[in-house]
Design goal:
With 156 residues, this protein is mainly beta. It contains two helices and seven strands; from the N terminus they run ααβββββββ. It has a four-stranded antiparallel β-sheet with strand order 1-2-7-6, with no helix packed on it. Strands 3-4-5 form a three-stranded antiparallel β-sheet, with no helix packed on it. The longest helix has 11 residues. The relative contact order is 0.16.
């Protein structure tokens, strides 16, 4: 992948700091990071679900943190001290991980659940009323609001 130098744009723009930091993050993303696998689903008009495959991890091994517009999912499996069995083949990954997701504005994490080795994180986008589009009623030509002038008795 090609990298782009955005330094000249930083000097000639004001107020686009967040955009440039996002572009820098995209440029510096390690494309080799594939563990653990995940899906992002759209479950409604403004609802989403992130599903992460975390086989072998328990609720105590996982942590979810939302900071600013970022979602971070961490897993650190604790090794059982009393287990003395020799593992002949280990195909189930037990390594620690951290998976980060950039959230759009007004996206909130509603909850998370762990079932059958899958961690489901529910997200909802709630746009504030002030930012939602409004429909302005159009009145007919003859029924426009009339302005009534009032005269005071002193002026008469």
């Amino acid at each position: 992948m090609r990298t782009f130098d955005l330094t000249p744009l930083h000097r000639s723009t004001v107020g686009f700091d967040r955009l440039f930091s996002l572009l820098d993050q995209v440029n510096s993303v390690d494309t080799g990071a594939t563990y653990p696998p995940y899906n992002i689903e759209r479950t409604g008009e403004n609802a989403y679900r992130i599903t992460v495959a975390v086989a072998g991890f328990t609720e105590d091994d996982l942590s979810i943190e939302v900071k600013e517009n970022g979602l971070s999912i961490r897993g650190d499996r604790k090794v059982e001290a009393g287990k003395n069995a020799d593992v002949l083949y280990q195909g189930i990954a037990a390594r620690a991980f951290e998976r980060r997701f950039q959230l759009a504005d007004h996206v909130e994490v509603r909850g998370a659940s762990l079932a059958n080795g899958l961690l489901h994180v529910e997200l909802v986008r709630e746009i504030p009323e002030a930012m939602k589009p409004r429909t302005i009623p159009i009145s007919a030509g003859g029924s426009a609001p009339r302005v009534i002038e009032a005269r005071t008795s002193a002026a008469a």
